[in-house]
Amino acid sequence: MLFYRGENMFTGANVSLIKNALNASSMRQEMISSNISNVNTPGYKAKRVEFEDVLKKTMDGSAMRSTHDNHFGVSDLSAVSPQIKEQTGNRVREDGNNVAIDTEMAELSANAIYYQALTTQLSNHYGTIRSVLR
Asked: Engineering a disulfide at 96: which of 15, 43, 66, 117 sits with its beta carbon 3.0 to 4.6 angstroms away?
């Protein structure tokens, strides 16, 4: 095993955090696709995946902290996971649907860029390890 600053370089907190962010991005892609496919479904409410806000709250200390394995909350950054929330604030049509197709398409593009940035960061991390091992 390779260790840097006491952390396993293959499975450390940074790698776990990137993995969780990739999972959130993948889940976000599914939610956006679901929102787009339900654009004409009466009563459907758009859903959003929240990860970055949860991570920020955990980092600044305003999120619930776990002090015991059986408690709810987050004990470290690598334990932060995405949450699905119903979107509010959109204009609701007469049929009760609040999906805005232009918003969904913009979210789709932003999520693709986010995912690409995460995969590049992970690839660079493993590239650094490869160069050290040579």
From this structure: 43
